Amino acid sequence: MTQQEALFNYTLRLADTGLVLGQRLAEWCGHGPTLEQDIAETNIALDLIGHARYFYQYAGEVEGKGRTEDDLAYLRDTNEFKNCLLVEIPNGHFGNTILRQFLYDAFNFYFLQELSHSKDKQLAGIAKKAVKEVAYHLRLSSEWVIRLGDGTEESHQKMQSALEDIWMFSGDMFEMDEVDEILIKAGIAPDLTKIKEQWTLKVDEILYKATLNKPKGTWFQKGGKQGQHTEHLSYLLGEMQSIKRRYPTAQW
Question: Which of 224, 233, 109, 102 is nearest to 172 (CA)?
Answer without folding.
Answer: 224
